[in-house]
Structures are given as structure tokens and as C-alpha cells.
Amino acid sequence: MKVIDIQESRIIRNAFYIQFVLLVFSELTHMIGNIVDGVIIGRCLGVDSIAAFGIVSPMMVVFSLAGTIVATGSRNCFTRLIGEGKIKEAQNIFSMSFAVSVVAAVVFMLAILIFATPIAMTLGASGNAANLLPKARDYLIGIAFGLPALNAMRVLSMYMPIDNDRQLPVSSSLVLTICDVVFDLIVAFVIHGDTFEIGLATSISQYAAVAVLFLHFGKKNIILRLVPQGRLPWRELGGIIWQGFPIGVCRVGFTLRVAFMNRILAATTNASAAIAAYSVYQQADELLCVLTIGMADTVAVIAGILLGEEDRPRMKRLLLTSVQATLIITLEVSVLFFFIAPYFTSLYISTGNMAFTLATRAVQCYVTGMPLYGLSIIYFNYFQGIGESRLSSVAGFLSEAGVLMLCAWMMSFWFHENAVWYSFPVTQIVMYIYYAVLIRIRSRKNATYGMSLWDRVLLLPKSFDVPDYERVDISVTSMDEVILISEKVESFCNKNSIDKKTAYHLALAIEEMAGNIIKHGFIHDNRKHSIDIRIIKKEDGLILRIRDDCYIFDPVNQLSLFSDEDMTYHIGLRMIFKASKEVKYTSILKLNNLLVRV
Predict the structure, then answer these.
(1) Residue 221: pLDDT above 80?
(2) Is the domain of 341 the same as that of 412?
(3) Which residues partner with 536 through β-bridges?
(4) Which of 147, 190, 191, 192 is nearest to 49 (CA)?
(5) Does 436 lie in the same domain as 537?
(6) What phi and psi, each to the nearest 5 degrees, are found at residue 224?
(7) Number of C-beta neighbours around residue 503 at 10 A
(8) Is there a domain that residue 450 lies in?
């Protein structure tokens, strides 16, 4: 018998890594157009064009701001509702988030087309860099046309992995990449266009990628549905925006930070070279941050599900897994990129000039701070997953803008343009001091000061989840372990004064359900599988949760298909369903989740 503790739960660990890979592809969908544009512009259109591109490219974050805020906030609500078994309510939330994101993008697009020039000037195309204004404005206009598609991609690609669709987001990224590369090459070598045409090529590619994502709605047995407008829960919109507000603060902070840094660099003697170097720095950030953002989003998604289930042990496991994954992956990538930084820089800037030297140094500074940044971003995304929007907003703004800008400004008196990239690793150290103080303060408030370090790091109140003696957490991997469960159930029921009839029904339900999973689910592939079983005592009775990572199978729907005339068919399931107060099934993140109220 394996009692789950922080070191176990293979299902949570595997779900984390699978979701991480999917979200990396999702982030690439939004980043890859910008990355491809940067390479083509830098190699084909010159230093001034890559500098202009660097001034505008941070706006890609703001362009998808409405979609990001609504999609993130609604996703947290969506996963919580799924964890509670409320499927229809979750579908309504998804539909509303999609509608709001696309409409907001159209409004944003019109505003940008009207005010392109002042926006480009505000971002840094002024002062010693005023010569970059025409190119920056033209690129801004070109990419503005793709805003509705960009926001639609943001919503769909964030939701589809949750709805067990792991293929279409990947296919969408490939279509976006291929189209953008082909169209950019046509602009550069066939029609000899400039930054406007490059931006427009990206917009067209984004619409092609959205078309691929829409194929999801033609599939059977999906949770995501676009419901009629009259059924949308508009009253929930304010709460959703509040839930997504932290990511919005981060994105706005990122844009403010880039504009601030560009202004510092524009005041230096070699403004164009310094801004071009910062453009390469941003490209490294956009390419590599898909790893850290992917891990952070994964934490937020799974934390939202576990919050709805009130599952403290697996919440600990989630954080431990994310910390291990972040350190291993970011350290390896950081070491690699530190040494290949000159080669990466050469993709954008020709060797042998000041811009190349500054850009190489900038990239190396970024990867030096990347591991610490990775841990920081998963933590304030975890805040968001557990509903601590205010904490997430403050930490996100400090990390992405406040502390970073302050450090750059203070260091600029000594290090000049180099202060912009030196400030990144310094900021991460400051953030860890902030987290240490926060954990100490919240531990006293949550009455967890005397508990383990991981309990304090969770920032959850002591009342979260039921006491240890009112729950059982078991992980089984074989039929022999399933058979032994009855002993554990009997002991649990005796401690909690539960009658023998209920105890018998509970043990029968576990043996029948877990036995069917092992018998029919473990044999379909060569992967190792396990089953997480949780029993908790509530005021209104007992709750049994069974989760497995085998192929998708809905026992509730399957039983409804059986003819009532054949009462011997799946008699074990019939007995359990009839004797239970409620049985619910959901499939999320390619996991089977069964809830039985006894």
C-alpha cells in the first residue's frame, strides 16, 4: 500500500510534464511570429530596422492583453468548475471569454491604426532614435490587423490542452511558423518590402493558425462548446477579469519596462546600437521564456483544479515537481545559451560591430538570471491558481517592471547601457527577499507557522483540506494493492465512527472502480500507470475521488448505454451507482476523474 506524500503521486508529476510541453507549444504560437520577424528583419533589412522592430515588438504583449486577461481569469474559473463537476457552467465561462477577447481585440486594432505614430514615439522612437519612427510605425500598423486572430489563438490554445486536445495547438504552431517564414521571405526577396509588409505577413499567418484551431469544435466528446450569447454568464465577467488581472499587470509592466529601457538606451551615445542590442535581448527573452511561462501556466492550471478539490498533499506535490523541473530545465538551457550567445546574436546582427558586442553580453546576462526568474514566475502564477489575485499582481509587477526598472535606473549611473541587462539577475535576488518576507507574514495569518516548510510555502490557511485523520490518500499500481485497500478503508471508517454498511459500500466502490481501471486501462500501452484514490469525510457524508492517467473512459456514460433489461451486465457498477448519492465523471488534462458521494 502506498500512502501519498509529497514525494509521490506519479499522476500529478506526469500531468505536469505533459501539460508543460503543451503550454510551451501554446506560448510558441504567440511568440514565433515575432521571433521569425526579428530574424528576417535583422538579416535582410539592417540595424535600423531591427532597432525599430525592437521598439514595437513588446506591444505584441499588449495586443493580446484582453485575450490574455480574460482567457487566464476564465481558465482558472473553468478548471475550478471542472474540479467541482460543473460542466455546463464551465462551458458558459469558456464561450464568454472567447467572445469578449475577440470583440476587445477589434476595438484595440482600430485604436492602434488611428494612433500608430504617438504610440511608436512613446515606445522609444524619439530623441536620438527619432529616425526609427517611420519603420516602427509601419510595423505597428502591419501587425495590428492580426489582433482578432491573436486573441482568438490566445484563448483557444490555452483551453484546448485542458480539453484533451494535444495535437491541434501543435499543428497550429507549425502552420503559423511555415506561413510566416514563407510570407516573410516573399516580402524580403520578391516584393522587396519593409517593416509594414513584414508585420502584415505575420497577421495573415495568425489567421491561418486560428483556422486550424477551429477544427477542434468538429470533434466528438469535447467539453469546450460555444454556447448562444443569451446563455452567457455576463455577471461573472467582473470576477473573471479580476482573476486574470495579475497577468494583465505583468504584461503591462513588461511593456512599460521595455519603453523605459529603450528611453535609457536612447539617451546613450550609441543609441541605435544599444537599442538594436536590446532588441536581440528581447528576442532571447521571448524564445526562452516560453519554457518558464509554460511551467508557470501549468502550475496555475493544475493548482486551480486542486483548489476546487481541496487537495493539500497533491498541491505540495505540484509545487515540488515544478521547482525540480524549473531548476533542471532552466539550468541546462542557461549554460547552453551562455556559450552560444554569439551565434544566437549573429542571427540578428552581423559580427564585428558595437551592436553585436553589446547584444552578446545582453543575452548572457539574461540567461544568467533565467533559473531564478523561472522559480519566481511559477510562484506568482501559483498565487493566481489559488485565487490570490492581489498577491499575484503585486509580485508580477515588481518582477516584470517595478524592481527591474529601479535597478536599471540606479545602475545606469555606473554601467550606462549595460545596466539595462545587468539589472535582470539582480532583480531576481531582490524578489526572493520579498517572497521570504511574504511567506513569514502569511504563515502567521494562516496559522501554518508551526507546520512544514511546504505547508507555509503553499500560503493556504490551515483549514484548507480536511484534517489528516479525516482523509485517506492512496496510490495504487497493481491489483494486489487494490485488494488490500479494504483494510485501509476499515481502519479509516472505525476512526471516524462510520457505520459498517457505508464502509462496505466504500470498499466495494474502490475495488470495483480501481479493478476495472487496472484490468482494462493499464494494458493499452507500454507506459506505467497508477491510480490516485482519495477518501475525505465531509459533514454531508463521504467523498471518494478516483483519478487515473489511462485512456479516456467515462463509466457514467458507459453505464447509461446498457440496456436495463440486462441487469447482470456490469452488475458491480450498477450496485455502486444505485447505492451512491452522486456519481460524476470528468476528463481533463487527459486524466479520468471520478467523484462518488457515499
Answers:
(1) no
(2) yes
(3) 471, 543
(4) 192
(5) no
(6) -65, 125
(7) 20
(8) no
Residue 343: inside a domain, yes or no? yes
Q: Tell me the per-residue pLDDT of 488-503, one tens digit each, with 9 for 90 and over.
A: 887 888 888 888 888 8
Largest interatomic CA distance in the chain: 87
Rounded CA-CA distance 67/152 in Å is: 7
Domain ranges, residue 587: 468-597
Tell me: do 483 and 541 sit in the same domain: yes
- On whether residue 318 sits in a domain, the answer given is yes
φ, ψ at 126 (rounded to 5°): -155, 175
- Does 277 score more than 80 pLDDT? yes
196 lies in some domain: yes
Any idea what DSSP says for residue 167?
S
Choose from 33-42, 445-454, 565-574 the range with maximum mean pLDDT: 445-454
Closest CA to 38 of 353, 344, 283: 283
Q: In this predicted structure, what is the pLDDT of residue 267?
A: 76
DSSP element (H, E) containing 584: strand 582-588
Same domain for 407 and 541, yes or no, is no
169: burial class by Cβ within 10 Å (0-12, 13-18, 19+)? buried
Output the average pLDDT for the chain. Answer: 80
The residue written with cell numbers 483519478 in the block is 547
Answer yes or no: are the C-beta atoms of 294 and 20 closer than 8 Å: yes
Q: Are residues 511 and 583 in the same domain?
A: yes
Which cell goes with 399?
A: 518582477
Q: Residue 121 CA to chain centroid, in angstroms? A: 32
Give 3-state DSSP helix, strand, coil % of the chain, rounded to 5. 75, 5, 20
* Coil, helix or strand at residue 253: helix
Q: Report whether pLDDT(335) > 90.
A: yes
Q: How many CB atoms lie within 10 A of CB 409?
A: 15
| Burial environment of residue 434 by CB neighbours within 10 A (0 to 12, 13 to 18, 19 or more) | middle
Please state, as a whole number, how many other Cβ atoms lie within 10 Å of the Cβ of residue 118.
10
Q: What is the per-residue pLDDT for 547?
A: 86
Rounded to 5°, the CA angle 133-134-136 comes to 65
Q: Is the dihedral of CA 295, 301, 304, 306 positive or negative?
A: negative
Instruction: Extract the C-alpha cell encoding 335.
Output: 549554460
CA distance 353 to 349: 9
Domain count along the chain: 2
Asked whether residue 428 falls in the same domain as residue 513, the answer is: no
pLDDT > 60? residue 69? yes
User: What span, in angstroms and rounded, lies between the C-alpha atoms of 182 and 187?
Assistant: 9
Contact 546, 531 (CB under 8 A): yes
Q: Structure pTM? A: 0.68
